[in-house]
């Protein structure tokens, strides 16, 4: 039995409480009583990661590396997006799906690219945009584009509503999820004003030959049905030493996406914030995003 199933059963009263019957299954019981990620010691994290690697290889046939790299001191990640340059090509979406082992069927995508006609109201009326467009060439004349994804808020509404504290904000600004503690209640999805959280309604599927084997416990490791997931600024890349760009930044053909350390005044994202016309999406909600839009 998975933890979220146990908690769901407990929530309806002791009469409906279900306890795993097969106590001989040591692996099942270890997963069932696995500690909350933030309560684990470094050694416990490594032990859990090794067990996950074995489980994933048995299930997928792929040798997957699960890292538990902590945030680095003096680092707070920030993201910038130049709306003057974005051409709506959606390459960021495809790179994100590949890098983060997102389900191909049913499809899960962290990034949504919105299309607007020139002159339309847009920041206040995102629901009126076109999420699904099909042009032979982009950008379509008379249109502009606005990608939306997790804003990595400093005051995240999703964290406040989680009943199991499965989601929290890391010191480097990434809003993370311990997927083994997610019970799939979807309160976080209702609370997020950016539509950034995605729910696995069915068992995620990734072809074995398309798996990215370099994963992080809090990031792109394989998920399960009933989990909510989200963008983590490619935590498996950005927490490396030296850190890499998120996949969506690296793939952008027009350089519209910027990423870096907000605490470093010389970083690319910091200089954009200082010198460009910057705004944050739905800033009036006091979510304090670490994601900045601007015009060059």
Automatic annotation (TrEMBL):
InterPro entries cross-referenced by the UniProt entry: 4Fe4S_Fe-S-bd (IPR017896), 4Fe4S_Fe_S_CS (IPR017900), ET_IronSulfur_Cluster-Binding (IPR050954)
UniProt keyword RNA-binding, yes or no: no
Keywords: 4Fe-4S, Iron, Iron-sulfur, Metal-binding
Pfam families reported in the protein's UniProt record: Fer4_11
Ranges for domain 4Fe-4S ferredoxin-type: 77-107, 173-202
Keyword Iron annotated: yes
Source species, domain of life: Bacteria
Classification via PANTHER family: PROTEIN NRFC (PTHR43177), PROTEIN NRFC HOMOLOG (PTHR43177:SF3)
UniProt protein name: 4Fe-4S ferredoxin
Classification lineage: Bacteria, Pseudomonadati, Nitrospirota, Nitrospiria, Nitrospirales
């Amino acid at each position: 039995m998975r933890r979220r199933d146990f908690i769901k059963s407990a929530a309806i009263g002791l009469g409906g409480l279900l306890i795993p019957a097969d106590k001989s299954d040591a692996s099942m019981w270890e997963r069932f009583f696995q500690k909350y990620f933030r309560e684990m010691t470094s050694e416990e994290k490594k032990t859990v990661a090794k067990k996950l690697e074995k489980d994933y290889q048995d299930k997928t046939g792929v040798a997957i590396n699960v890292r538990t790299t902590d945030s680095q001191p003096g680092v707070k990640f920030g993201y910038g997006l130049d709306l003057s340059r974005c051409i709506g090509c959606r390459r960021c979406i495809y790179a994100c799906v590949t890098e983060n082992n997102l389900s191909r069927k049913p499809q899960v995508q962290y990034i949504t690219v919105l299309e607007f006609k020139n002159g339309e109201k847009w920041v206040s009326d995102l629901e009126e945009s076109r999420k699904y467009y099909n042009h032979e060439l982009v950008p379509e004349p008379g249109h502009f584009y606005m990608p939306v994804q997790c804003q990595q808020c400093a005051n995240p509404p999703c964290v406040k509503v989680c009943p199991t504290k499965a989601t929290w904000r890391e010191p480097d600004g990434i809003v993370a999820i311990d997927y083994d503690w997610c019970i799939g209640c979807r309160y976080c999805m209702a609370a997020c004003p950016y539509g950034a959280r995605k729910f696995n309604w069915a068992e995620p599927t990734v072809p074995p030959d398309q798996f990215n084997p370099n994963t992080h416990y809090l990031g792109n490791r394989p998920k399960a049905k009933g989990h909510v997931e989200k963008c983590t600024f490619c935590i498996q890349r950005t927490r490396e030493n030296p850190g890499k760009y998120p996949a969506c930044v690296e793939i952008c053909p027009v350089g519209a996406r910027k990423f870096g350390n907000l605490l470093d005044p010389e970083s690319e994202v910091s200089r954009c914030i200082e010198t460009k016309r910057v705004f944050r999406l739905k800033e009036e909600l006091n979510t304090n995003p670490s994601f900045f839009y601007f015009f060059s």
